[in-house]
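Deviation from plan, reported transparently: siroheme complex.
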Amino acid sequence: MSNATVEAKAKLNKFEKLKAQKDGLAVQSELIDFANRGWEAIDKDDRDVRLKWLGIFFRPVTPGKFMLRLRMPSGVITSGQMRVLGEIVQRYGDDGNADITTRQNLQLRGIRIEDIPSILDRMHQHGLTSIQSGMDNVRNITASPVAGLDADELIDTRGLVQKVQDMITNNSQGNPAFTNLPRKFNIAIAGCRDNSVHAEINDIAFVPAYKDENLGFNVLVGGFFSAQRCAAAIPLDVWVQPDEVVGLCEAILVLFRDHGSRGVRQKTRLMWLIEEWGVEKFRSAVANQMGKTLERAAPQDEILWEKRDHIGIHAQKQPGLNYVGLHVPVGRLFSGEMLELARIADVYGSGELRLTVEQNLILPNVPDSRLPALLAEPILQVFSVNPEPLTRAVVSCTGNQFCNFALIETKNRAVALINELAAELQVSKPVRIHWTGCPNSCGQPQVADIGLMGTKARKDGQTVEAVDLFMGGTVGKDAHLGTCVQKAIPCDELKEVLRSILIQNFGAVAKVESGFDP
Ligand code: SRM
Ligand code: SF4
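Because the crystal trials were delayed, the predicted structure below was used instead.
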């Protein structure tokens, strides 16, 4: 280890000191007191940091109106749960809404601390939890959004994902064993052929692979994005059977907890530990921790397809049933829409909905005979099953409307700009455009055809909102990360820049009726 690394590891960062003083999960027993006292009277470290262990995020941009981040393993939500969440945000009027996140999850907005105990009670009654969804915890575990429905899937991973979540969260009670990791941690378990989880950007990813005709998973480790460095996950050279998945996750989390650096915060994700040890030593340590010999990776995995976006009508593996993918512009849902989605899931489907990492929704189990009536529902004018190819694949992080890290406004701008471009241009296939408000990369610009990362630029003597432009991200089979190709484009010049890129790189042509002449 170099002297610099030793020094960086030795000095605990400020969040480690905060956790050492009082564990994040300790605020669980203080919630009623916080609710009684009101947000302004809560100790600042508890309010701004420790509450995130319960999924409760103080928003400096909207003080007093908290964000609540849930856990939605595999992105599965019942109509009853959606209805409860819709009713929760409904009481906050214009402040209340929900966002589908890039981890196949939901975040609620406008939440008042005085309501939190009753909201959590109600959520628990409906099998929902927000436990350990922020700060130094494992995030929502992602999986194929059509697990159990997809005619071409290899493994239905829903049960496994739930088991991993239950292990990590102690069945949603809160788990002291994994409450104090050195940093956040992402896990994805793919059972499909199209890498619908973006395996390469997770700290642990399981991708389906055959060994001696047995179906299991090859394991990738260490993928992450951060402001200073992004790294694609690397092979651990391990193949596991499905019943070893929980144990492998547990072993890696124990190693990360006990040996991961707690020094310079920007160097604390799992990849830094893997690089410090070397992948072979890390692999041996995982095997030791599990108390077994691990099999070497299968020579090839089964991710052989282009990535699908699941929008539109698709026949399921169950004869006569379909899953219907709805496009939700930048993932934003309002309470009335949530209630309406719950209703159509009951009326046309089986009372279930799915969320995708593209921030869209899927309505499973719709019988052939019910499709015409479903397609005539007014909500499908808002959440289309057949959006324009240009608007279809826009993803956006929260941006400065609610996030204090943001350098720019994202969601509303992303929708307005793509609508303007879509009015003038047409493309033959979707162009994946990802917006992210700052270098933390929650909107994953590195996986996009066109990635836009918020920054500031100087223009006419003023500081203005701008973006760094990323290109070349590929997804699905052989996914790889895009890179920054142009810095600091002022947002008011972006439309022209995107128009040229769409024409030159993505074959966009002018729409005749727009009168636009490129
Ligand atoms: Fe993120 C921090 C939102 C996915 C990397 N992220 C934040 C915070 C909590 C910052 C804050 O306290 O304000 C943002 C909350 C804003 C808000 O009010 O919504 C935030 N991240 C999001 C979401 C909601 C973006 C979205 O609109 O979908 C996503 C929630 C996922 C979930 O359900 O749990 C979200 N964040 C991601 C992803 C994408 C992914 O996981 O595939 C990444 C990059 C991948 C990764 O983590 O390796 C990501 N978020 C970060 C980072 C940088 C982490 C690092 O190692 O440096 C931060 C900052 C931090 O942790 O210090 C961050
Ligand atoms: Fe906030 Fe930055 Fe993440 Fe966007 S990328 S949600 S602005 S932290």
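The chain is about 30% helix and 20% strand. We consider this an acceptable substitute for the interim report.
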